[in-house]
Amino acid sequence: MFQGETAITVDDKGRLAIPTAYRELVVRECGNCLVVAYNPFEAGCLWIFPQSEWERVRDQVNALPSVKAVHRDLQRKLVGAAAHVEPDSASRILLPASQRASAGIEKKAVLLGMDTKFELWSEQAHLSRIRQTIGEDQISDDMAELRL
């Protein structure tokens, strides 16, 4: 559904404009409802889900037994801190200040369309990640099967 990389500016109030290429899709496919959550696996990044995709992820995460600390941590980061946002008339969403601060997202950010969700990266974290290459010792069996 979502694909591509877009440089984003976050305004002084913590709002970002949804890129023009995604606006109609967000209205039509997402019912103009999005959910912002921490990325529990990578620093410097937030996840932005369409409402329906979020509900699927939320239900899977909440189904994990909370007796394990790692499950509780995932539930805390994804479900406990999730924020529902709706684009305003200018197609801007307000990112929660606590999430922006935690991810280090300030004025400049990068929005990546990752099929069923967006990743919103601080500019510096994105540059750091994208500059890293994948070494031979990191290639999984599944990756080795790809014809790139």
Number of structural domains: 1
- Structural class of the helix and strand makeup? alpha+beta
Query: Helix tally?
Result: 6
The SSE order reads EEHEEHHEEHEEHH
Mean pLDDT across residues: 95
Query: What CATH architecture would you give?
Result: 3-Layer(aba) Sandwich
Intertermini distance: 22 Å
CATH topology: Chemotaxis protein chec
How big is the Rg?
Answer: 16 Å
The main sheet comes to: 6 strands, antiparallel
CATH superfamily: Transcriptional regulator MraZ domain
- Strand fraction equals 25-35%
- Outline: globular
Q: What is the helical fraction, as a range of percent?
A: 25-40%
The CATH C-level name is Alpha Beta
What is the count of β-strands?
A: 8
Strand order of the largest sheet: 1-7-8-4-3-5
Protein name: Transcriptional regulator MraZ
Subcellular location: Cytoplasm, Nucleoid
Pfam family, one: MraZ
Keywords: Cell cycle, Cell division, Cytoplasm, DNA-binding, Repeat, Transcription, Transcription regulation
Outline the structure in words.
This protein has 148 residues and is an alpha+beta fold. The chain has a single domain (2-144), classed as Chemotaxis protein chec, CATH 3.40.1550.20. It is built from six helices and eight strands, in the order E-E-H-E-E-H-H-E-E-H-E-E-H-H. The chain has helices at 20-30, 51-62, 69-80, 97-103, 123-131, 141-144; strands at residues 2-9, 15-17, 34-38, 45-50, 83-85, 92-94, 108-115, 118-122. The strands form two sheets. It has a six-stranded antiparallel sheet with strand order 1-7-8-4-3-5. The chain has a two-stranded antiparallel ribbon with strand order 2-6. The longest helix has 12 residues, at 51-62. The radius of gyration is 16 Å and the shape is globular. The two termini are 22 Å apart.
